[in-house]
Sequence to fold (516 residues):
Amino acid sequence: MQHLLQRLGLRTNPVVFGVSALLTLVFVAVTIAFTETVGETFATASVALLDATGWFYILGVTTFLVFLSWVAFSRYGHLRLGQDDDRPEYSNPVWFGMLFAAGIGTILMFWGVAEPMSHFAEPPMGDVEPRSVEAATEAMSFALYHFGLHTWSIFGLPALGFAFFAHRRGLPMRVSSVLHPLLGDRIQGPAGWAIDILAVIGTLFGVAVSLGLGTLQINSGLAYLTPLEEAPIVQFGLIGIITVIAVISVALGLDRGIRRLSNVNIGLAVGLLLFVIVVGPTLLLLRGIVQSTGNYLTSLPFLAFWTDALEDTGWQRNWTVFYWAWTITWAPFVGIFIARISKGRTIKEFVLGVLLTPTAFTIIWFSTFGLAAIDLDLQQDGAIAEAVLEDVPVSLFVFLENFPLAGFVSGLAVLIVVIFFTTSSDSASLVVDMQCSSDVTDDPPTRQRVFWALVEGTIAATLLAIGGLEALQDVITVLGFPFFALGLVIIWSLLRGLREESLEPVGPRRRPRTDA
Fold:
C-alpha cells in the first residue's frame, strides 16, 4: 500500500487513508445497489438509538459545557496552546470569521427562520397556546439552546484537546493524539489508526449531511425564485457545483482559499443581517435581541437537563438529540480546524472565544430572523408558519419575500449558503487529510485534499438518493453516537494531560516525527 501511495505522489498513512476510502466506497456502492434497504435500516436504527440514549446526549453535552467553563477559569487557563512565547497567528476578527464560517454559518442560514417558526407554530412542551406571545418566547429559547453555548461546547471540547496535544505536545493533529495520556505510544499503531479511521468516516458523513441540507435549501430557493424545479437531478447538479468550487478553494490553500472565502461570506452574512434589522421592525428586533438573551440565560439551567421524561412525546428525540448527534459528527472536523487556526492562544482565551463570541452572534441572528418572521406571521394570519411546516428548506426565502428587493436579497442569500457550504467542504477536506497524515508539520499534496472534497460530494449525493431530509437525519443520528462517547473520553484524557503539564512546567515537549 505504501509503495502504491508513493507512486501516486501521496504522503499519508496508508492504513487510515486506505481503509477510510475503501469503507466509503463500499457504502456508496451498497447504497446504490440496495437503496431502499439501506434507507430502512438506518431509519430503524435511528429510532432505536434515540429512544435508548436521548437522556445520555442531554446530560453529556451539558457536561461538556460545564467542563469547558471550569477549565477556562482553573489554574490551567493560563497555559498557552503552543510554546510559552507563541502568539496567535490570526487576529481576533479573522479568527472568528474562519471558525464561524467552518462551524455554524451553514446551520444559521438553514434554521434561522425555520426553527423559531416551527416551535412558534407547534410549541415543544405543549404547555402554551400556539402562535401566542408565550409560544414566541419559548420558541426563541429553544432555538438559542440548540445553537448557542451547547453547540459550541460540542465543537470546543475536541478543539481544545487537538490544540493542546498538537501545539503544546507536538503530536500529529489527529483524534488519536488527544488520547495519548490514555494510550501512550499505541496511538501510532492499530489502536490509534482505528480511532482515526472512525474520525475520518464520521467527518465525511457529518459534512456530507450538511452539504445535503444546504443543497435542499439552495434548490428550494432557486425553485422559489426561478422556474427551476425541486428534483433529485437538480440537487445532484448543485452538489457537483459546490464540490467543484470547494476543490478550487482547496487548491488555493488555507490562507488564499478558506480565509478569503470566510471573510467574504461573513461580510455578506452581516450585510443580510443588518438589512433585515434596518428594513424590518427595527425597534422590535433591537428590544427582542435583549429580551431573547435574558430568556435564554434564564431558561438554560432547565433546558440543559430537560429530558421530557414524564411526557415522553418524542419531540426531543426528533429535535434536540438529533442536533447533538449531528453536531457531534462535525466535532472532529470543526475541532481540528479550530485548533489549526488557534495556535498561540491561552486556554482561557480559547475557551471564552470559542464559546462566547459565536454564541453572541447566534443570539443576534436568531433573534433578528426568528422574531421578524414571527412578527410577519402574526400579520399574515399564520401564512409563514404554514409554509415553514410544509417545506422547511424554503423557510428563509418565504420570509425574505416580504422585504424590498426580495429577488435580489434572496439571490444573495443563495450565494451566502453556497459559500458557507463551500468553506465547510474545503475545511473538512483539509481536516480529513490531516487525520490521515503522520505528522502535525506535514504539508501534504493538494491532490489528497481534492480527493476528499470529491468524496464528500459523492456521499452527500448518495444520502439524498436514499430519502432526502429524513435519510440525512437518520444516518447522522446513527453515526453520531460513537463520537459522543468519545467526547467523554476526551475529558478524561485532557484532565490527565493538564495534570501532567502542571507537574512538568518546563515548557512544551516536542515528539519526533513518526511515520506510521
